[in-house]
Design a protein that fits this description.
The complex is a heterodimer of chains A (883) and B (244). In chain A, strand 8 and strand 9 form a beta hairpin. Chain A has 28 helices and 25 strands. The model of chain A has no long low-confidence stretch (mean pLDDT 83). Chain A folds into four domains: 208 residues, no CATH class; 154 residues, no CATH class; 238 residues, no CATH class; 168 residues, no CATH class. Chain A is an alpha+beta fold. Chain B is of the alpha/beta class. Chain B is built from six helices and ten strands; from the N terminus they run ββββαββαααβαβαββ. In chain B, strands 6-7-8-4-9-10 form a six-stranded mixed β-sheet, with helices on both faces. In chain B, strands 1-3-2-5 form a four-stranded mixed β-sheet. Chain B is globular. Classes of the chains: A alpha+beta (883), B alpha/beta (244). Chains A and B meet through helix 18, helix 26 and helix 28 of A and helix 1 and helix 2 of B.
């Protein structure tokens, strides 16, 4: 019996079983692909996080401890590749005396940090110091210090020493310290303490020279020179960032324990992994928020495919029951069907995962856990969509009811309970509650191995999905029930004189039609919300990249280079839309040294995008117009406004270096607005003013950076050309490489793969939901169409009847999808605000994709309508013989 | 059994007012690799107001012949024409009424909506079709079933509604495929009586496929199908049997 049932199923219901299996395969493929995304993300996150660290450990000897013993202990610690001693000393100030135009001038700075580096330091830690000008070794001056001192290679710098005569050294090169924050960290600072700002002035000396200068100060109290041990560690870490963080932290603790407190480890590697494990947790959250609805949707689609054949199955089972077959046997037959469909679908889905994993992530392995979980998901969906409905029918439906051609239209219980409205209200309440905590989904407290993910926030969108789906079902049911006549009137353009007949037919099948509309609506909402989230995310990543790099291509002149704005012309060429010079100075606001950017407010936006959210007190355009109208205007940070109690129009005196004399001069500005972000500017306080006003007062129009706009096209070609052109005399960076550098491990690498998977599946689901559900529902009614043909319906009239259902499905599905998609996008972007940097002020809507998804669904509906109408006509003769 | 009919059975096929004329019509079907000849070289004609009983065993080709006469199916050989109807019936809906053996109502529509369908497919307005449907219901005496759905009807009621639907357009030719096949004797008699009454009323030609001799005897002429071939009995209904 079982084998004949199975072979009958495969022969007579092969197409339906195949569609069921495809639905399951889609769900398995989506789950598996996202699982692979998660695995791939985690492994690359550890690697990327470790690669961003210039110095893995900074071991600070404690009072009474022996630095040499500590150095030895660090060198011999398992996993240490190299360890070098670095001298740290304080100088009372630096000075450079220069002679120009027959006059002698002396530039001085405040207190400075002077480091003593072993000869092989830059070999062991290549990312700690970046050369800008002059020699790579010897006496090196930090960029900002060189600007303050007007120092160039070859100049002599006087190093002030407390209680001792100053020492003089000769500058060999000028360098940048990309990781100054961690280099000058307070090692052993309590967890949660405010990070200390790096010193304004830094000088790097060869260790022998450093010892010669600062050894006499040994034992001079709190400011006595110290030696810190810098270590490079093996990055052979567990692929999971959380596990890698635990391993790295344990190694540092091990060293501290072995040296009995003689040293404290400043664990930069663990700090980077700490951030990566938060990213990994966000990847997990993204998996849930973006992936789970897709998998559920695929399951729902499978259930719909099964449901469209439920009438036939009910009648078949009713016949078998009438002929004496027991319920247990029937359930067994349904279980066999579920097993066959589930197995085929799961295997096909896993095959798709293997292909996607290779294409999207470049790896062949899927991961055992991902395979097991996806396979379990597939079999579960098969049981839920094939076995459960059969079991429910057997339990609840009498033989007579089972033989009814059309299922009853009694309203389900949940509509009487208002479950949909309750769920929507619940979604709103949870969204509001999570919003009160600032949508802190991932909590990774510094130094604590455990990481907390607030899955509670997932309940908001989840309830919205379910509630909105049920609410859409209620609306369609209402429209086709009580609003049947209205629907009939609306269908007249499609169905003509058959409009009332079409609406009557739809009314009797309104439950299945409402279900189909909901599935289509949810599929479109999934596509819309995923695409909008991804688009908003990409837009924000682009904003971040442009803020960091400044423009598509940026040419940074070396400090002090006398390059004027007229040099812009040399960068013009093919692919370049505009070039904008940007001044960079250091200015004292009171005692606080800040970066000052000089711009041409009328043209700066030709080369870089300035968004309104970067400014306060007006839009970007309004504040730039203020700078144009009043040349002495200055935009300052909110922190400066608060510190100095500034009101619009207040006088702000800045001390700037006069290029002619080298002396600091006071230049009056007037406060015109607040700026919080600006291309190439640091995250902390800075100023923006008119370049021409600065040049007029300081006697120099020297440009620090040229911002080159390519319109986003040919970035690599333009940057390559300019790089050749400047031939090393300036640093050329482009937005493409900046994206890779600044993006967190989550953003830069993996989200692109996730996006491709998500958007591809979303399109497939939307098209399948539209066409499949309609055509399957109509296929079930071929007999009805044959009768209609027998009583005189022409092919065109059949098409009009079918098109009426397609139109209803299209209007309902598109409306439901657009509304839910928009609400979900807003909710997702708000709830997942933690992954955005900077947070978006508005959604970035990918209209092209959305219109494409809608058009694809409509095309799928049209195709299903055409094929079904043609098939109904062709098969009517065969079906008539059965009447 | 009788030899294949080379000459059209029933009316003289040359008569220009014959409702349907079959000339050497055959219809084959494929079932798997086998080829089944359902109708073999049948020639016949049905005139206006004729009453024909088409008898024969199950599988003898009665239904297929009726489908061919209605224009619902196309012959694999021979020709069919409808000289008295002016054109192919499929192109002029409402001229031929067809009654199926089994349930043939659209399950989503009420009895009245089912009956209105042929008029709607004929291009009439909803209002006009509804009036015709109401008239057909009244003619069959089943006005009370107007709003009932097919699932709520008994077999006999459903068949009466199907007859009402076939007659709603006042067709010139009525073809009934074992209309009482699934009914009990009493209900079957009532259904045939109603069918004959209405056919008389609208002066339509009537061909009824049936196994039931009691039904056949109520019709004037009897054609017998055997293994796809048609044999003619020219029994006339000179004194029609009293109908209940």
């Amino acid at each position: 019996m079982t084998s004949s049932w199975l072979s009958g199923l495969l022969r007579r219901r092969g197409a339906r079983l195949l569609l069921n299996a495809i639905g399951i395969a889609v769900a398995v493929a989506l789950l598996g692909s996202l699982g692979s995304f998660l695995v791939a993300s985690r492994s690359t996150m550890t690697d990327r996080a470790a690669r961003t660290v210039a110095v893995d450990w900074q071991v600070q000897p404690q009072a009474g401890g022996s630095p040499s013993a500590l150095l030895e202990a660090t060198r011999t610690a398992a996993g240490t590749l190299a360890a070098l001693p670095v001298g740290f000393a304080h100088s009372t100030g630096l000075a450079v005396t220069s002679t120009g135009d027959g006059a002698t001038s002396t530039q001085t700075t405040g207190p400075a940090a002077v480091l003593g580096l072993p000869a092989d330091y830059r070999t062991v830690f290549p990312d700690a110091i970046r050369g800008l000008e002059g020699a790579a070794t010897g006496v090196l001056v930090a960029q900002q210090t060189a600007a303050n001192l007007h120092a160039r290679p070859g100049d002599s710098v006087t190093i002030g020493r407390a209680g001792l005569p100053p020492a003089v050294v000769r500058v060999d090169g000028i360098v940048a310290l990309p990781q100054a924050d961690s280099l000058f960290q307070r090692v052993g600072a309590p967890i949660g303490a405010q990070p200390s700002a790096p010193p304004d002035n830094v000088l790097l000396l060869p260790d022998q020279q450093w010892h010669a200068v600062f050894d006499p100060l040994a034992g001079s109290g709190a400011d006595a020179p110290t030696v810190q041990i810098h270590a490079a560690r093996s990055h052979q870490l567990p692929p999971d960032p959380a596990a890698a963080y635990t391993a790295a932290t344990a190694s540092a603790h091990n060293l501290e324990a072995r040296t009995a407190g003689a040293g404290i480890v400043g664990d930069n590697l663990a700090a980077a992994l700490d951030r990566a494990r938060a990213d990994a947790a966000y990847a997990q959250v993204l998996f849930l928020f973006l992936g789970a609805p897709g998998a559920v949707l695929a399951a729902l689609l499978t259930a719909m495919v099964t449901a469209t054949g439920s009438g036939r199955r009910r009648r078949e089972f009713a016949l078998l029951r009438a002929r004496g077959m027991g319920s247990a046997r029937l359930v067994g037959l349904a279980a066999i069907e579920a097993g066959v469909v589930g197995s085929i679908g799961t295997l096909a889905g896993l095959a798709v995962v293997a292909v996607i994993t290779r294409m999207a992530f470049g790896t062949a392995g899927i991961g055992v856990t991902a395979v097991i979980l996806s396979a379990a998901g597939g079999l579960l969906i098969a049981l839920a969509t094939v076995l459960v409905p059969a079991y429910r029918d057997l339990r609840q439906v009498s033989v007579a009811a089972g033989r009814m051609a059309v299922a009853p239209t009694t309203a389900p219980r949940w509509t009487r309970w208002g479950l949909d409205l309750v769920l929507l209200a619940g979604a709103g309440v949870i969204f509001w509650l999570t919003g009160r905590n600032g949508y802190q989904l991932v909590l990774a407290p510094e130094g604590v191995p455990g990481i907390a993910v607030s899955y509670w926030a997932f309940a908001g969108p989840a309830l919205l999905w379910i509630g909105a789906g049920l609410f859409a079902w209620r609306l369609v049911d209402l429209a086709l029930g009580r609003g049947r006549k209205l629907v009939g009137r609306g269908l007249r353009p499609v169905a003509g004189n058959l409009a009332d007949t079409a609406s009557a037919m739809m009314s009797r099948r309104r439950h299945s039609l409402a279900g189909a509309t909901v599935v289509l609506g949810l599929a479109l909402a999934f596509a819309a919300s995923t695409a909008t989230f991804n688009s908003t995310y990409r837009a924000q990543a682009e904003v971040d990249a442009q803020l960091t790099n400044g423009a598509d291509v940026t040419v940074a002149e070396p400090p002090g280079a006398p390059v004027g704005p007229s040099a812009s012309a040399q960068f013009a060429g093919p692919g370049v839309r505009s070039v904008e010079p940007l001044q960079h100075r250091f200015a004292y606001v009171g005692a606080d040294l800040q970066d000052l950017y000089g711009v041409n407010p009328a043209t700066i936006t030709n080369a870089t995008a300035l968004r309104d959210q970067y400014f306060q007190g007006g839009t970007a355009r309004q504040l730039l117009d203020r700078l144009t109208a009043a040349p002495d205007s200055v935009l300052v940070s909110a922190e400066t406004v608060a510190d100095f109690q500034l009101q619009p129009g207040d006088l702000v005196n800045l001390r700037l270096r006069d290029a002619r004399t080298g002396a600091l001069i006071t230049v009056p500005f007037h406060y015109a607005g607040v700026v919080s972000e600006f291309p190439t500017a640091p995250k902390d306080s800075f100023l923006v003013a008119n370049a021409s006003y600065i040049a007029a007062h300081t006697g120099s129009d020297a440009v620090a950076t040229f911002l080159v706009d390519t319109g986003g096209q040919n970035v690599n070609a333009v940057s390559g050309r300019i790089r050749q052109q400047v031939a090393g005399s300036a640093t050329v960076t482009d937005i493409t490489s900046t994206r890779a550098v600044i993006g967190s491990s989550l953003t830069a690498v993996d989200l692109a793969g996730l996006t491709r998977i998500e958007l591809g599946f979303a399109l497939a689901l939307a098209a399948a939901a539209a066409g499949l559900v309609l055509s399957l529902g109509l296929t079930e009614r071929r007999r009805g169409f044959a009768i209609a043909t027998a009583v005189g319906a022409s092919g065109g009239q059949l098409r009009r009847l079918i098109a009426s259902e397609a139109a209803m499905l299209a209007v309902g599905g598109l409306l439901a999808g657009a509304t839910l998609g928009w609400v979900l996008s807003e909710m997702l972007v708000a709830v997942l605000t933690g992954v955005f940097d900077p947070p978006p002020s508005a959604l970035s809507v990918p209209w092209g994709y959305l219109v494409g998804a809608g058009a694809l669904s409509l095309a799928s509906l049209a195709l299903a309508t055409g094929l079904t109408a043609g098939n109904a006509r062709r098969s009517s003769i065969a079906l008539l013989r059965e009447l | 059994m009788s030899a294949p009919a080379r000459r059209p059975a029933g009316q003289d096929a040359t008569r220009p007012n014959a409702l349907v004329v079959c000339e050497a019509v055959s219809r084959d079907y494929r079932t798997g690799t086998a080829r089944v000849a359902a109708v073999r070289e049948v020639s016949c004609a049905v005139g206006p107001a004729t009453r024909i009983a088409l008898t024969g065993r199950s599988g003898s080709g009665k239904s297929t012949l009726l489908h061919l006469m209605a224009g619902l199916d196309t012959p694999t050989a021979g020709t069919i024409s409808w000289p008295g109807l002016g054109d192919v019936p499929r192109g002029r809906p409402g001229l031929v009424g067809f009654i199926f053996q089994g349930p043939s109502l659209l399950p989503e529509l009420t009895a009245a909506q089912n009956i209105a369908l042929p008029r709607l497919f004929g291009g009439h307005s909803q209002g006009h079709a509804a009036i015709s449907a109401a008239e057909a219901l009244r003619r069959l005496g089943i006005e009370d079933l107007s709003d009932a759905l097919p699932d709520q009807l008994s077999s006999g009621q459903a068949q009466r509604v199907a007859i009402a639907r076939a007659l709603a357009t006042r067709p010139r030719l009525i073809l009934a495929d074992e209309p009482t096949g699934r009914l009990d004797a009493a209900t079957g008699t009532q259904v045939i009586a109603a069918l004959l009454d209405v056919a008389d009323e609208i002066d339509a030609g009537l061909v009824v496929a049936t196994h039931d001799p009691a039904v056949a005897v109520q019709l004037g002429e009897s054609w017998q199908m055997n293994d796809g071939r048609l044999a003619i009995s020219t029994q006339r209904r000179d004194q029609p049997k009293e109908r209940p």
